[in-house]
Design goal:
With 233 residues, the chain is an alpha/beta fold. 42% of the residues lie in helices and 15% in strands. β3, α5 and β4 form a beta-alpha-beta unit. Bound molecules: 3-methylbut-3-enyl trihydrogen diphosphate (IPE) (2 copies) and magnesium ion. One 3-methylbut-3-enyl trihydrogen diphosphate (IPE) binds next to α1.
């Protein structure tokens, strides 16, 4: 169990893991070196959140827009992410973590996709923290997909917010309470557009590879003191 104590924790924490490339550049390393260390940080943060008893953790690993990058970077990033998840599978099992993959998995090469789905299946009986990994995920794409599914099933107008939510990748999950973004960027970059309507945001200049549990605790302590009103008085 982590030693750190909090007055309250988010039930659903979401993280935009940004800044791998700049972390590497500062060290005169190739961008992929940043992704490699970033995967280790991902594992550490997942473990820390599970130890704290956070029920839902959602991480943004690859966006629909990230396909614009050089094919070699995309390939290496996906390989490292897949390899990382496989490597941390026993740890995740021990911590009773479930895994859910959100996004256009069909765009991934067959081999990578099959391996990722096998990891998801292997952890499917667990009952602890639900780790959702967003891969080829985009908030707009997710909404368009939801609307198309509603049309395809012949939904009658007017559709409700609940109807839309049932067709999101995050169906059944509570909305995120806190969204963390690393690397000093102050934008949402197409992440959980619908779901984060009332999320609290925490931004840090720390690049993702350096976002160790100590940095996570800072974000969670900042969240403790937020006053959430949801539009009320
Ligand atoms: C985060 O780091 C990983 C992904 C977005 C896939 P970046 O690769 O975006 O690193 P920067 O933002 O260029 O430093
Ligand atoms: C957002 O980071 C996507 C992920 C962290 C996976 P980006 O680096 O792609 O976002 P922009 O381009 O700086 O907005
Ligand atoms: Mg970036």
């Amino acid at each position: 169990m982590a030693e750190e104590r909090f007055a309250r924790l988010p039930a659903h924490l979401a993280v935009i893991m940004d800044g791998n490339g700049r972390w590497a550049k500062k060290r005169l390393l190739p961008r992929t070196a940043g992704h490699k260390v970033g995967v280790d940080t991902f594992a550490e943060v997942v473990g820390a959140c599970s130890d704290l008893g956070i029920p839902y953790l959602t991480v943004y690993a690859f966006s629909t827009e990230n396909w614009k990058r050089d094919a070699s970077e995309v390939q290496e990033l996906l390989r490292l992410m897949g390899q990382g998840i496989k490597r941390f599978l026993p740890d995740m099992h021990r911590k009773n973590i479930r895994l859910s993959l959100l996004g256009e998995l069909e765009r991934f090469p067959e081999k990578e996709r099959a391996e990722l789905l096998a990891c998801e299946r292997e952890l499917s009986e667990n009952t602890g923290m639900l780790l959702s990994v967003c891969l080829s995920y985009g908030g707009r794409q997710e909404l368009v997909r939801a609307f198309n599914e509603l049309l395809a099933e012949g939904a009658k107008a007017p559709v409700t917010a609940e109807d839309v939510e049932k067709h999101l990748y995050t169906a059944g999950l509570p909305d995120p309470d806190l969204v963390i973004r690393t690397s000093g960027e102050y934008r949402i970059s197409n992440f959980l557009l619908w779901q984060s309507a009332y999320a609290e945001y925490y931004f840090t200049d720390v690049c993702w590879p350096d976002f160790k549990p100590k940095e996570l605790y800072k974000a969670l302590h900042a969240y403790e003191n937020r006053s959430r009103r949801f539009g009320g008085a």
